[in-house]
Each structure stands twice: as structure tokens, then as C-alpha cells.
Amino acid sequence: MKTCKDEYGAYIGYKTLKDLYEDHLSAATRLIDAHTTEQIQERDSHRTACVKWFLLYLVGCLLFGDKINKRIELIYLTTMKDNATMGDYSWGGMTLAYLYHCLYEVSLPNGKALGGSTTLLMVINSVTLLNLNIFFGFFFLVIT
After folding, report:
1. Of 33, 60, 67, 102, which is least packed with CB atoms within 10 Å of its CB?
2. How far apart are CA 124 and CA 128, in angstroms?
3. Among the three residues 42, 73, 88, which one is the final residue of a domain in this structure?
4. Is 140 found in the same domain as 83?
5. What CA dihedral angle connects 122, 99, 18 and 79, to 10 degrees?
């Protein structure tokens, strides 16, 4: 049996990811009225695969988007091996570290595009500006 990395390389495109999701979703839908234990287990494995492919899409698009925004690194599948341990990862810390790395890459002389969570970058800027406004507003209030 081929692994994802052997079949797709280190990345997977959104179209392929969508196709995998839809294949597992249709297989799970066909088994909606499962009666035997084997059918129930197969349906549950297809449902689990649907959730993992969808989460991989969310992780790749929202948190760890690359510069061309057309593919997702398969390394994030390793965080989804066990649904119970997914919450143990520091997703915010990983996203922030990835964003800082992307900012470093785009600041290089040959840097052309920014990857990462630009939404997070806007939130960080907004909070920083809000804190500065509060600080300077209080500072000028004390001086006058």
C-alpha cells in the first residue's frame, strides 16, 4: 500500500484533497444504513477519513498556507494520527512561529509573497495599535 508521501510527494493539491474528501464522504453515505459490524466499522473509518481530510484543508488554508496557496504540506497529517491527541498540540504557537518564518522569508531580498496566516498578522497589528493608543492616551492624560 502506498503512503500519501509516496503517492503525492510532500504536498497535496486542494483539488486532490477535495476528491479524497468527496470519495470518503460518498462511501460513508452509501453505508448510512449499515447493519453488520464490518459495514459499521467501514462507515466509521470513512467518516474519520472525511474529518481528517477536512481538518487538513482547514489547517493548510487558514493556519499554514504557502505562498502559492494551491497546496498543503502532508507533514500536518502526522498531527492527525489520533483524534484524541490533536488538542495536545499548541496550534497557536505553531501558527505564530510559521507566520514569523514566512515574514522572515518575505523580508529577504528575493522574497516576493507572504505565506502563513495573514489574518493572524492583522489581528496582532490591531491589538498592538490598540495597546499603543491606550498607553499613549493614558500617558497624555497624566501629562495634562
Report:
1. 33
2. 6
3. 88
4. no
5. -130
For 80, counting Cβ atoms within 10 Å of its Cβ (0-12 exposed, 13-18 middle, 19+ buried), the class is: middle
Residue 30 sits in which domain range?
A: 1-88
* pLDDT for res 83: 67
Contact call for residues 5 and 74 (beta carbons, < 8 A): yes
Query: What cell does 100 get?
Result: 514569523
Q: Which three cell numbers stand for residue 122?
A: 492583522
Q: pLDDT grade, residue 1 (50/70/90)?
A: very low
**Is 98 found in the same domain as 79?**
no
In whole angstroms, give the CA distance from residue 37 to residue 88: 31
Confidence of residue 143 (pLDDT cuts 50, 70, 90): low
The confidence score (pLDDT) of residue 98 equals 79
Last residue of a domain, one of 47, 62, 88: 88
pLDDT at residue number 136: 63
Q: Alpha-carbon torsion 78, 82, 87, 89, what sign? A: negative
Is residue 94 located within the same domain as residue 84? no
Closest-CA residue to 56 (of 72, 36, 44, 67):
72
